[in-house]
Batch of 3 targets.
Target 1
Amino acid sequence: MPKPALRRAVAATSALAGALALGLTAAPAHATAPLDYAALGDSYSAASGVLPVDTSNLLCLRSTADYPHVIAARTGAALTDVTCGAAQAKDFTESQYPGLAPQADAVTADTDLVTLTIGGNDNGTFIEAMLACGTAGILSGGNGSPCKDTYGSSFDDAIDTKTYPAVKDALRAVRAKSPNARLAVLGYPWITPATADPSCFARLPVASGDVPYLHALQAHLDAVVQRAAEENGATYVDFSQASEGHDACQAVGTRWIEPLLFGQNIVPVHPNALGEQRMAERTMSVLGIG
């Protein structure tokens, strides 16, 4: 080939290679938009008592180590976290504190994922039952079932007649905000073991006969929350098996829930950092994300 022709061929080849390189550089790979994630719920969602505290709203006693933050970190989701300690089902559609928007307002038509725990604070199911049974346990020296004998089915009756419809209405409000979002409703990890552990009485002062009473009460609440979730097309994340052996009577490093006395959190009878992490992992496993 004559030299001028050779030079033209080389130049053309170089130009083609440059154009291809430019084209490959200029056309970015298709990027998947991050999940638009709204986290709602009560203190079990907010990780109340776990450090570090989210200083954006101190009234809610929300932690930046709560399970929504763990899920967002693992999935790269864009998180809007409006979880708030002491929240009840009504606070999804009403203001919990002056100046605080209803939690459901964080959900929009563009929301991809919603997670929440709710129901434990309605009718004082957790706090009133734990305080009542703890007080009765101390006065009885840990013997008998003074709490069950005093309150009988009253807590269970309130769960059926008040908590269930309130949770159902709250989930309906969330679903109306974003009909196509994936809605995950988490159950509550076990607070007590199924039967009394005498070595735990100093930390969880519940009489031996009231330990199974509280355990059954929590199982009833979780069952009602599950029913409300399924009736609103939500995925229920069950912790009845996953949290077995991780209740408040277990050792540090094993328990997910801190005891009533001598625990490591500033808020007792709530998940610790390990519990929040395990709640996140279980939720991601059920949803198939992360």
Target 2
Amino acid sequence: MTRYLLRRLLMMVPLLLIISGVAFLLIQLSPSDPAEVALRVNAIVPTPQAIADMRHELGLDAPLWQQYLTWLHRCVHFDLGTTFITRQPVADELARALPATLWLAATTLAMIVVISLVLSLLCVSAADRWPDKLIRAGLFLLTAMPGYWLGLLLLWLVAVKWRWLPVGGIDEAGAVILPALTLACGYIGTYVRLLRSNMLANRHQPWVEYARARGLSERRILWRYVLVNALYSPLVALGMSIPKLIAGTLIIENIFAWPGLGRLCVTAIFERDYPVIQAYVLLMAVLFVVCNFLIDTLQMWLDPRLRRGVVR
């Protein structure tokens, strides 16, 4: 087990280097000169001398390999450069926006878990009857809706027309509910189908018949045995959804004026603030790699069969 984890950690090194290379090339492949962009966003006339001075300040006049090694060295020391707009460290800008995105993602994750468990249990209790079919049909329609359209619909209906919740922002109580619900709707249908199919498969296992023979009630069998044994694959899939949730807030944060990483990135795209875009891409990619490693570790810990396979 330890040898397997060490091997996976070593495999992450070249992968992270490739990711850093792709993030670095974003500026090099940009259609406009970053030095000229840095001058224009600060209302400075981009004369040839001013562009040359800015390229020297940004280190763009050095050979490409030297630029990459310098940038990689800074990233390792959490120095992601300076924004073109505010001239503040990019790491500080990300640190200010990250808590709001994590709060939104955590709330969304809680909604996904609670709603998926409740609806899947209802579906299994009424399997192939009208409540089960009605829930699945509703979830199919909900999953098919584009997130931005659903967000605008909830914003107009719940916040503007009925005035039940705040229109946007983060300051008022309950402001996180609408953006979190919009994000959760894209995942609930998947996890309900996964849990439902697993629980229906487990209900026909011999150990369930043994539990019935012992006189246990159907409700206790469903909650204590069937549900617990059906949670393995949904938990693994849910773990992989965490980086998707954080990266998927890009559009929703802008719809609900949520001051998180997604809104920061969209603002940087419109203003062509390349260091912020570069840092955002690198952060999301590293998050996916790290979460993938953690989920693999969780699988090894939960399933002894996988550990035996690694040892062999």
Target 3
Amino acid sequence: MVIPPRLAPLLEQFDFARERLAGRMAGPVMDSGDGTDIEVGPITGEEFFWEPVPECWSVRRRSDGPGPRATLLAGTGAWGRDAAAYPHPWPPPFTTIAWRLSHLSEMLTLRADHTDGGHVLTRDDYLVNGDVAEAVAAFDAGAAAWRKALLSADDAALDTLGHCTYPHGSDAEEPFIDIVWWVNQELLHHGAEIALIRDLYRARQH
């Protein structure tokens, strides 16, 4: 299928952000931004759950219940992600790498389903991972599914309101190209946050 000209730069941006975050999380090298490879090790379990400030939101065993200021654990399975119904706590809780990566992976997986899949998945269906390797693999799978969904969109689809039926955002009111842009900025800014937490963890004083 021919990629619509308006989609091409957004797809390129998505690929860049995805590959950079994947390298930053798993190593063995990451792109420094100027083409230089920097050695980086994979995220450890301790780092995945590290809480740099008190009362972080994270991914937790369902049997332990939600964390501070959270009222529920989103997702399914033995683990869940701290969450709360609207209005969310203010100021927003600081979130761990585990939380941010789960949020990204869920969003990509669900939006892919609601664009080019069964159009049925909700947050209650999403399996939350408490193992760092499984969480990274879930991100890779979600990103691949979203990219496949993007390739299914023709030029008319980019202008269609509600082309993506994702139930947890403004998708029903937005042309699909705006949703594509939104997903990119989610990946860019949460990817940068994950990278920063990795830097802080490495530089922390023991």
